[in-house]
Known about the structure:
Layout: H1 3-13, E1 16-23, H2 31-36, E2 52-59, E3 62-72, H3 76-87, E4 92-96, H4 122-135, E5 139-142, E6 147-149, H5 152-155, E7 162-165, E8 169-178, E9 201-202, H6 205-208, E10 216-220, H7 224-233, E11 239-243, H8 248-252, H9 266-273, E12 278-281, E13 284-292, E14 295-303, E15 309-313, E16 316-319, E17 358-360, H10 372-390
Parallel strand pairs: 3-4, 3-8, 4-5, 8-17, 9-16, 10-11, 10-16, 11-12
Antiparallel strand pairs: 1-2, 2-3, 6-7, 7-8, 13-14, 14-15
Amino acid sequence: MSYIQHFLLCLLLSSFTVTTTVVSSFHLPSTASFQTRNRNAHLRRSSPSTTTTTTSLQLGDMEVLEYDVAIIGGGPAGCTCALYTSRADLKTIILDKNPASGALAITSHIANYPGVDRTMSGTELLTQMREQAIQYGTRYEKAQVFMIDVKEEETGDSVYTKCVYTPDFTIKARALVLATGAMGRVGKPFPGEKEFLGQGVSYCATCDGAFYRDSEVAVYGASTEAIEEAMFLTKFASTVHWIVPTDIEKELQGGLDVEKNKIMDHDEAMQLMACPNVKLWTKTKLGEVIGDMSGVTGVRVQKVGSGSDEAIPVEGAFIYGNGGGSKPITDFCQSKVELDEGGGVIVDESMMTSVSGVYAVGDIRNTDYKQVVVAASDGCIAAMAVEKFLNNRKMIKVDWIHR
């Protein structure tokens, strides 16, 4: 049964029961209902002196909770946004599918985030960001979001005009922030890709390239993104094995219809091929990422039409073809907000989307600057805009004093 079918079944078979619970902590819902569901998520509390009233609607097994701000995604953009909105005394919840699977979480070391020791791992930095938001009152829940509603005519509520649906509960919010990142797949992952993700497999050369100084790496894909990432890697790697499934040399020489491959920048491709430390594997398909306990040790490839495969010894595999890349994760949006040609959510300077009260931050915007510090900046901007929006301010309030 699908999530939507599950939700509709609860709607049809159950009656509505409205309960109001007063709790002596920051926007906690009925604790008992969460305990009976035996879910793994921990309830986070802020100062016990804060008293709020949380309305909980029981829809069979489906609980409806009300918040000022709902944030989908618990990466650096989402956590930064939550930190600021919570400091602004806006009841905030983060819904995170998997805290261990984001772009930052799978980064082995952080070398370019200001003020952070370069030996710190992405997981450690993300944990600190999450805990900091929680300390200021954010509630964090591990939950899979499968659908959203973003307008009053959809939710039927003039105050809580946004709804976020998960298998266990529904969140009603006054403002919604999309921060799910851009690690979506365009196809089935290659064998070994998932197993060695973060241990040699990467989708971001800018993030991880410096870790492969004087090492051999493989880049798979013929898109402009793949070419730009491979070019960046030439600054560090001793050899960049550029693996493409098409006859790219013939295409660049004009033997193929250039208009059929608009995703590839031909000038950049020529520039990449001219680099002395780039080895081109044309008409070659990636078959498998291989490795051991230490991480990636190579990739297995096959020449088109050869019938036999070959192993290329590498320490890093950057995949931008089928199964890998940086596609914005927007499947749950169901065309509720406008997207650009690359699938990124379109926003204005305040990070607001095409729908009033809905914001998008971080890599989901399909920005070229996929960096932790940029994602955090997006979250800050959106949070300040949300505070202005919800309080009907004319000016941005730069920061808030939290006591």
